[in-house]
Write a structure and sequence with these properties.
Layout: H1 21-41, E1 48-51, E2 56-59, H2 60-76, E3 81-84, E4 89-90, E5 103-111, H3 113-117, E6 124-131, E7 134-142, E8 147-152, E9 156-159, E10 162-163, E11 177-182, H4 191-202, E12 206-208, H5 213-221, E13 227-231, H6 238-247, E14 251-253, E15 273-276, H7 281-291
Parallel strand pairs: 3-5, 11-12, 11-13
Antiparallel strand pairs: 1-2, 3-4, 5-6, 6-7, 7-8, 8-9, 9-10, 13-15, 14-15
Helix pairs in contact: 1-2, 4-7, 5-6
Length: 300
């Protein structure tokens, strides 16, 4: 595993602002421990179960990693609420409020389950902390490469090589490299979804669909792709990803160009977004505007 710097007690050169250093270090350590578990079992046989009626799945690996993460968080922060992708954790489901402390941990123990099922080593572990309904800490760990990205609100975003600083300049003449995600609740044939994807594919050099939103957010934060568009995205992944991108200097807007909020407790109709570098964002918003009408669910 690649070495990583420890958190900076002063909040100026490590993981972020004062006040969440212990939480950030704990989240990094726990995510990496879960990543080690997933990596050790990835090529072994594991059970797979259908999840809902939309083709999603849950694997034995999801459940093992989730149990590990939620148990470690509960041991470290017993007054906090924990909400996990597969239903583990403590307290009620996602939404504002938190536990007795007013804080909520969001856990995606294996973002990319469908990739794992078909043998693709494209998956990450994600952990976020929200105070009330606002994200304050996000961690994304890639078990395949051993790399971890983390951010604390107001303190910047960091990876294995230090602070993440977004690249500047327009996309290549051939067009931007974009990524796409949609929530599991989006029905097949949704007209807005179809129009957006077609418009983005026509206006980009490549449109990636990785089935692992948190990995995509980390790619955006470190400058590997030019933009990321989501339609009715899943809540469990959004706070950590948004915070990582925002602290790396990216902008995130609603599909209609208005201010986007990554807070928890909102309906999925408020979880559609366009994210990218400031100099690329106008082009992305123009692609979106030309793909579908503003009254097709683009508002808050």
């Amino acid at each position: 595993m690649n070495p990583r710097p420890k958190t900076d007690p002063g909040g100026t050169g490590g993981t972020g602002s004062p006040g969440f250093e212990a939480e950030c270090q704990a989240a990094v350590d726990i995510a990496e421990e879960a990543g080690g578990l997933l990596r050790s079992r990835f090529r072994r046989a594991f059970r797979i179960h259908p999840k809902g009626e939309d083709g999603d799945v849950v694997t034995e690996l999801d459940l093992l990693a989730e149990e590990l993460v939620t148990r470690r968080l509960a041991e470290r922060f017993p007054s906090d609420r924990i909400v996990a992708e597969e239903g583990g954790g403590t307290g009620p489901g996602a939404g504002g409020g938190g536990g007795p402390s007013g804080r909520t941990w969001l856990v995606d123990p294996l973002d990319g389950s469908n990739n794992v099922v078909v043998g693709l080593p494209v998956y990450v572990v994600g952990i976020a902390l929200c105070v009330g309904d606002e994200p304050v800490l996000g961690v994304v760990h890639d078990p395949v490469t051993g790399r971890t990205w983390r951010a604390v609100r107001g303190g910047g975003a960091f990876g294995p090589r230090g602070r993440l600083r977004r690249p500047s300049g327009p996309p290549a003449p051939a067009g931007p490299v974009l990524a796409w995600t949609q929530g599991h609740g989006v029905p097949a044939g949704d007209p807005v979804c179809r129009a957006l994807k077609e418009g983005l594919e026509a206006g980009s050099r490549r449109l990636l669909q990785l089935w692992a939103p948190l990995l995509t957010w980390s790619m955006l934060a470190r400058g590997d792709i030019d933009g990321f568009v989501g339609y009715r995205a899943e809540e469990i992944d959004l706070p950590a990803g948004c915070l990582l991108a925002a602290e790396a200097g990216l902008e995130i807007r609603r599909l209609d160009g208005g201010r986007f909020s990554g807070r928890i407790g909102q309906p999925d109709t408020a979880r559609s977004f366009v994210a990218g570098r400031p100099e690329v964002l106008p082009h992305l918003l123009d692609l979106v505007a030309r793909a579908a009408k503003p009254d097709d669910g683009f508002g808050p």
